[in-house]
Amino acid sequence: MPTDLDLQTAALRSPGQLEPEGKRPEREFVRFTRLQRALHACMIVSFLSLATTGLTLKFSYTGWAAMVSRFLGGFQVAGFIHRTAALLMFGVFITHLYNLVQLKKREHKSWRALLLGPDTMLFTRQDLRQFLATMKWFIGMGPRPQYGRWTYWEKFDYFAVFWGIAVIGSTGLTLWFPIFFTRFLPGSFINIATVIHSDEALLATGFIFTVHFFNTHLRPEKFPMDTTIFTGHMPLAELKRDKPLEYEALVASGRLQEHLEEPQPEIVVRTIRAFAWIALSIGFSIVVWIIYAMLFAYK
């Protein structure tokens, strides 16, 4: 069993130098639980389905939308897939909230301690300071900030789901059940909901497949793909480089060993990479379709 000193020494090397070439590291840092990885995978499937089917309806007058729609079985089938994917996303969101309640019970914390503790997903002054420091680092006016468990852009991505469920989800339900909602809302709200649902979904899709993809996969230290959210593991050297404050806190508390596990089997990693490459390819294709529709065929 390696000691903390051994682990710290190994982490000082670059990720490619952790172990001799051809030999996998004995243990890796566990960043995400199995449930978190499963929820993210379901989120990917639901979002890709919603984006693909929704955009074929929004840009139905374009050649690519008609082609994709025929591949899916027609616009009516695309609508069915869209609503099924929406239910899956609602299920992911509710499951996550339930898991937060269970986490609070397991750790015997108050909501205040859970939401405002050192690993909070809420934005803090530290996030603002790190954002400003990052902007200075980008233009060579300062060192790279020392990030903790969650960076400001990860928190932004996290709460984007809450925003999407509130705005896109609520308007989508209004369009799905117009008779029910017009019992207590004016009929004109259906037109308003159509505009909000369509434009906010377009904005979310463009953001996810550009900014989010860059932050998670296309940054130089991650390119061409970051598999941490899929495998749940990351090398210790990568943890020390990307999350130095979290690494130092774990070493200081003597809890680093608790978060180490054997690497995922090679067949699992290859399967995960295949799934991730398919998702990335679909996402980048959608960006190209959106740009084409907006520049050359928008009505």
Automatic annotation (TrEMBL):
<keyword id="KW-0472">Membrane</keyword>
<dbReference type="InterPro" id="IPR016174">
    <property type="entry name" value="Di-haem_cyt_TM"/>
</dbReference>
<keyword id="KW-0812">Transmembrane</keyword>
<feature type="transmembrane region" description="Helical">
    <location>
        <begin position="158"/>
        <end position="181"/>
    </location>
</feature>
<feature type="transmembrane region" description="Helical">
    <location>
        <begin position="80"/>
        <end position="101"/>
    </location>
</feature>
<keyword id="KW-1133">Transmembrane helix</keyword>
<feature type="transmembrane region" description="Helical">
    <location>
        <begin position="38"/>
        <end position="60"/>
    </location>
</feature>
<protein>
    <recommendedName>
        <fullName>Cytochrome b561 bacterial/Ni-hydrogenase domain-containing protein</fullName>
    </recommendedName>
</protein>
<feature type="transmembrane region" description="Helical">
    <location>
        <begin position="274"/>
        <end position="298"/>
    </location>
</feature>
<dbReference type="GO" id="GO:0022904">
    <property type="term" value="P:respiratory electron transport chain"/>
</dbReference>
<dbReference type="GO" id="GO:0016020">
    <property type="term" value="C:membrane"/>
</dbReference>
<feature type="transmembrane region" description="Helical">
    <location>
        <begin position="201"/>
        <end position="218"/>
    </location>
</feature>
